[in-house]
Amino acid sequence: MKRSLNDLTAKELFNLKKQVATAKGKAIVLVHPFFDYPTHDTKYTSVIKRILANSKMPVIILGEGRTNLDHVFRALSIERRNNVFSFPTANEDPQLIKHYSGEKPVLERESGELLTMMLHAAGVKKINLGGAYSAKCANLTYDALLSSKRFSKVHLLSGALRSHVSEHNAEFVHVRSHAQEARVSIVERIKQALRRKR
Questions:
Q1: Of 30, 120, 124, 186, which is least packed with CB atoms within 10 Å of its CB?
Q2: Cβ 90 vs Cβ 65: under 8 Å
Q3: pLDDT digits (tens, 9 = 90+) for 106-130
């Protein structure tokens, strides 16, 4: 099953905006959460499963364009709820698929910018990020979300990040958490300064 951004309907995008408003601007973004599924990492799988089954926030899955999410949900023995949205990407790459030319996906060059614009337009203000293959795909997505300066918070979900190289993953989480703390600290200082001016 091939899926591209052209397959996103106005109804899906409106529903995303509505769900974000209900969640007060919060959303979860999972980058390739089913990469090389099934995995032996049962802790990671149980965290992802819990998010998909119980999250009150909208969950945006950046998933390979040919991944059949309904099949994955059945394999995880959970029902796909209406707060789960899928933005199709290339395999092993977080670039969004614009459309297909025959069997070949045509990728969005400014993918990070487009993703941040779509999330911002939906009213997202705070993002919780997770997913597999974190050393590359989640890392690139995190950088795009953070550098856009469109969100007040981009937080890494504990237990919901998985890499094939565990020491790289630990380094990635360590570096990102410091960058995240610095970003949050700057935002808080700006908010305090604005409150004082009023």
A1: 186
A2: yes
A3: 888 788 899 999 999 999 999 999 9
Supply the DSSP string of 32-57, one letter for each residue.
Answer: STTTTSS-S-HHHHHHHHHHHHH-SS
Number of alpha carbons in the 13 Å side-chain half-sphere of residue 31: 31
Q: What letter would DSSP give residue 152?
A: S
**Residue environment code for 96-114, b if the CB has 16+ CB neighbours within 10 A, otherwise e:** bbbebeeeebebbeebbeb
Closest CA to 23 of 85, 74, 95, 69: 85
Query: For residue 55, which phi and psi values (nearest 5 degrees)?
Result: -60, 135
| Alpha carbons 177 and 179: distance in angstroms, whole number | 5
